[in-house]
Design the sequence.
């Protein structure tokens, strides 16, 4: 089948943050500099080429953007200042919007106003809903125990319901990602055995992000790992041990110890990222998309309100703690509902999945005959 | 008809304060004396003008023409036009005499102001009132830079029978071309082309070579420049020296040879190469023991010299020469490849720049033209291990040539250096010719084979079995005792890592180090990329924005030898045309009242009687 070219592909990607793609003159310096580029996966130059040629279907089928961790060396060395690193970043945003079947992701990435409005709407709905619930079944002056404004058990049920919805949404997007990159590609036949054999790659990359560590610059990996584990700790505490944190007056020091460490991690990395993006300290902080700021803003808001409500509760001011709790939830719910399936947070699924899918694809290519013939076959079917 | 012309001259200031120094009364008195002027009126600063009152005045004085004079008379023109119309006159007969327009802010503003008013009164266009001035040209010419461009220009001008001073910073003329082995695409011997020209320069009765010299300052005007030239101490009399090499043998000081780009050593008393012009030794004062100890030590060469040609105590001196034209042919320097650390230049011994490889492959070079790898050797004097070229060292089995090092790169020089693609292909040919078993890779971004016979040369090199890889090399690393070149092979869609024994960096051309200082002395501006700017790239590529100063060769922008020689000849034609004519036109004379009156009389005489 012929490949259809979209002459406006660069303009579309520019809405997702791409810059100066047309400047690229294909010297290949970026691809050769990148520690991940090689074998079946050559980038960023080849991805830049897809963009310049408007090969939208090819671009949608690529896993390369997920293999890039934006160490920024390609952009630093680029003789044309064509910003290949930032282009890969914008491709990740674009791919996220392609995987998302609802179209919400595309709307958010192209219009920060739409995203902000959605956040405000979800926040208000959350705030109003929780306030009505709290006033109906509890007392604003009670934080925990009998007649609590927002009892841990109720919030727990709410969390689980939300988690199930989000996992379903993200799961559908992941299936679409698989279909675009491996499943739907008739040139790539992966035996079921390989799917099972390599499945361990998903948790491995999720927890270690070991590929990120292969970048020459180690600090971004370390910062990201701290952020990720802080989130994960918070998530486990909230999903399974919320009552340990919320109920008093006795303090469960184990749960609190984990909670404080996680809060410290979140606040620390948030400050680091905001400072980096304002001062442009590292190459990957040089360009900031609006969604980056919205994400950091929500992160800061959620961390601050969470900490303050906890302090108020533990210092014996239940009414103020309850108000801050509602405010905290007004940050948490939009952040999870909108960011996890539709925006920046979705990469927690796509990244490890991409490692898995890329390994599968590479296997399939290796199984078949000579690589050159294979590429020709792929080109014909694409 | 002419007798009925009655001009009213109105002086009014817009209050810009620019021409407050002009005595308006004096200018008005002058205007009043002009034959057609019926009235002069001084209205002062920012007068409040009423068209009807002015109209009454115009009628009363029976004015047919109005001249509005001042610092910004256009400001008041509408009022006068309206008044003229109200008075029943011709509204188009209002002319302006703007002091600013014709440059009344020159040395004698009042005189110019008078001339401007006279122009408006007579209706003489300002451009016609200022006659171009021709000045006589000193027939001697200064050529700065003794490379192939300077040599060619000097020979052409001198061949026309006129004096040429050829200033060269080094001890010998020849420039970079003298270092080359072959020229592309013809693979002619570079020295066979250049050295006869150098000898011709040295022997020419009209050419005076000023070697070890630098231009310090330039004064004067086009056609009549006075140039101060610093002549550093050569310390060897070039007329007495017979180049017997006896001094070299006794000199104890070893210094990296500039002519061989530092890949071998020379002595502190040296001759860059056997065909040097003037064919004489020179002492490097910065390294000579006698000079550095102010005569306390050494002096072996002076004792050894059979001709008594060595004068160790020679002092630098400044000479002044008078010339009519100046040709700048200062050429280029090579991009410092240390700046791109990932290519390993300076860190890996067998990473060379193009110029170093040029010396290595040159039959008159340190290895007699054998392409060999650097090997470690203990330096007996310093007791340290050094990487040196030795003719007996093993030859490389694979050579990688990396294009665009420092060129076409926004981080270094964004321009294309124009010669690298072709000399890289030439290198590949030389590798294949001298080492038939060796593998040679070219890593290029775009192959710029733009000249006559260049594309054919490229095809020929490919047929010779050179691997021409599209893709810039990202890095050169040392791995297990040999070097690995990593790059993307774009055509074959793969990342490649080749083990190689030698890497040649096609380093960019950059303006010669002294260019900004020289440009300042000349009063000629270099462009943003550092090269001298020509007056017009298409129609006047050899002239500069200053009359009498021309550019030739790479100092105007990277170019190859054929283009350099062509431009050098073109410059010679420009210089000769002004020298043979005997005078050149310089900028226009400031206008004067006499010039205006003469022009007005001429115009009146030429006008048919009505």
Sequence:
């Amino acid at each position: 089948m012929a490949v259809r070219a979209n002459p406006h592909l660069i303009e579309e990607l520019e809405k997702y943050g791409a810059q100066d793609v047309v400047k690229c003159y294909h010297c290949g310096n970026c691809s050769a500099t990148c520690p991940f580029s090689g074998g079946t996966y050559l980038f960023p130059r080849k991805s830049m080429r897809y963009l310049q040629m408007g090969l939208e279907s090819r671009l949608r089928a690529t896993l390369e953007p997920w293999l890039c961790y934006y160490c920024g060396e390609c952009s630093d060395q680029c003789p044309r200042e064509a910003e290949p690193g930032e282009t890969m970043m914008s491709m990740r945003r674009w791919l996220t919007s392609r995987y998302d079947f609802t179209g919400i992701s595309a709307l958010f990435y192209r219009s920060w106003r739409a995203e902000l409005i959605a956040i405000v709407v979800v926040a208000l709905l959350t705030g109003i809903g929780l306030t009505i619930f709290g006033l109906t079944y509890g007392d604003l002056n009670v934080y925990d125990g009998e007649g609590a404004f927002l009892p841990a058990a109720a919030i727990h049920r709410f969390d689980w319901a939300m988690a199930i919805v989000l996992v379903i949404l993200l799961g559908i997007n992941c299936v679409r990602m698989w279909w675009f990159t491996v499943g739907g590609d008739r040139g790539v036949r992966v035996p079921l055995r390989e799917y099972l054999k390599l499945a361990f790659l998903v948790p491995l990359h999720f927890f270690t992000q070991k590929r990120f560590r292969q970048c020459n610059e180690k600090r971004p990996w370390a910062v990201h790992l701290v952020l990720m584990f802080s989130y994960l700790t918070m998530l486990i505490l909230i999903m399974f041990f919320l009552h340990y944190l919320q109920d008093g007056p006795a303090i469960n020091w184990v749960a609190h110890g984990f909670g404080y460490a996680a809060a410290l991690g979140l606040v620390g990395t948030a400050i680091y990222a905001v400072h980096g993006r304002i001062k442009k300290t590292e190459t990957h902080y040089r360009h900031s998309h609006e969604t980056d700021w919205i994400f950091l803003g929500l992160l800061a808001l959620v961390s601050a309100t969470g900490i303050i409500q906890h302090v108020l509760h533990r210092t014996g001011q239940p009414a103020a703690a309850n108000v801050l709790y509602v405010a905290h939830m007004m940050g948490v719910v939009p952040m999870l509902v909108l960011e996890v399936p539709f925006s920046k947070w979705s990469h927690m699924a796509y990244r490890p999945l991409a490692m898995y899918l890329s390994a599968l694809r590479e296997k399939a290519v290796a199984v078949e005959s000579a690589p050159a013939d294979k590429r020709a076959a792929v080109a014909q079917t694409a | 008809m002419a007798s009925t012309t009655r001009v009213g001259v109105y002086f009014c200031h817009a209050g810009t304060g620019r021409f407050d120094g002009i005595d308006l009364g004096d200018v008005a008195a002058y205007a009043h004396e002009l034959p057609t002027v019926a009235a002069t009126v001084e209205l002062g600063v920012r007068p409040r003008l009423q068209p009807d009152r002015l109209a009454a005045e115009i009628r009363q004085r029976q004015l047919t023409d109005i001249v509005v004079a001042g610092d910004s008379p256009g400001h008041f023109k509408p009022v006068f036009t309206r008044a003229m119309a109200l008075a029943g006159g011709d509204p188009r007969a209002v002319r302006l005499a703007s002091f600013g327009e014709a440059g009344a802010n020159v040395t004698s503003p009042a005189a110019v102001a008078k001339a401007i008013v006279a122009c408006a009164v007579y209706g003489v266009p300002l451009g016609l009132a200022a006659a171009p001035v021709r000045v006589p040209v000193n027939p001697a010419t200064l050529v700065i830079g003794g490379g192939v461009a300077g040599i060619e220009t000097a020979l052409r001008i001198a061949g026309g029978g006129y004096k040429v001073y050829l200033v060269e910073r080094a001890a010998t003329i020849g420039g970079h071309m003298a270092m080359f082995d072959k020229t592309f695409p013809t693979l002619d011997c570079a020295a066979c082309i250049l050295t006869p020209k150098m000898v011709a320069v040295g022997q020419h009765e009209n050419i005076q070579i000023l070697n070890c010299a630098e231009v310090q300052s330039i004064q004067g005007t086009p056609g009549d420049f006075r140039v101060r030239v610093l002549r550093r101490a050569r310390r060897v009399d070039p007329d007495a020296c017979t180049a017997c090499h006896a001094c070299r043998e006794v000199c104890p000081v070893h210094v990296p040879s500039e002519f061989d780009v530092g890949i071998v050593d020379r002595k502190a008393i040296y001759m860059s190469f056997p065909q040097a012009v003037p064919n004489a030794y020179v002492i490097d004062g910065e390294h000579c023991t006698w000079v550095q100890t102010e005569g306390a030590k050494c002096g072996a060469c002076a004792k050894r010299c059979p001709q008594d040609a060595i004068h160790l105590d020679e002092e630098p001196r400044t000479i002044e020469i008078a010339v009519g034209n100046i040709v700048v042919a200062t050429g280029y320097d090579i991009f410092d490849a240390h700046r791109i650390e990932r290519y390993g230049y300076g860190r890996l011994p067998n990473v060379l720049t193009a110029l170093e490889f040029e010396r290595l492959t040159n039959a008159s070079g340190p290895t007699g033209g054998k392409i060999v790898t650097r090997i470690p050797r203990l330096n007996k004097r310093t007791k340290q291990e050094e990487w040196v070229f030795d003719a007996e060292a093993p030859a490389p089995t694979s050579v990688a040539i990396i294009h665009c090092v420092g060129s076409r790169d926004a981080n270094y020089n964004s321009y294309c250096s124009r010669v690298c693609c072709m000399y890289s292909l030439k290198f590949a040919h030389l590798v294949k010719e001298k080492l038939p078993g060796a593998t040679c890779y070219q890593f290029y971004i775009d192959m710029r084979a733009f000249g006559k016979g260049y594309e054919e040369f490229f095809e020929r090199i490919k047929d010779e079995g050179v691997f021409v890889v599209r893709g810039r090399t990202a890095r050169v690393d040392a791995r297990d005792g040999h070097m690995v070149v990593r790059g993307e092979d774009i055509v074959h869609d793969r990342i490649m890592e080749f083990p190689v024994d030698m890497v040649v960096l096609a380093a960019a051309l950059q303006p010669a180090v002294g260019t900004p200082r020289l440009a300042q002395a000349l009063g000629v501006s270099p462009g943003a990329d550092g090269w001298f700017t020509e007056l017009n790239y298409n129609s006047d590529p050899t002239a500069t924005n200053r009359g009498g100063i021309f550019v030739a060769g790479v100092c105007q922008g990277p170019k190859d030898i054929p283009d350099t020689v062509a431009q050098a000849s073109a410059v010679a034609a420009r210089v000769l045309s002004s020298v043979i004519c005997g005078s050149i036109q310089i900028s226009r004379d400031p206008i004067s009242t006499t010039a205006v009156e003469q022009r007005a009389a001429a115009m009146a005489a030429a006008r048919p009687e009505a």
User: Anything to note?
Assistant: Chain A has two domains: 9-99, 104-354. Residues 373-382 of chain A have pLDDT under 50 and may be disordered. The two ends of chain A are 7 Å apart (CA to CA).
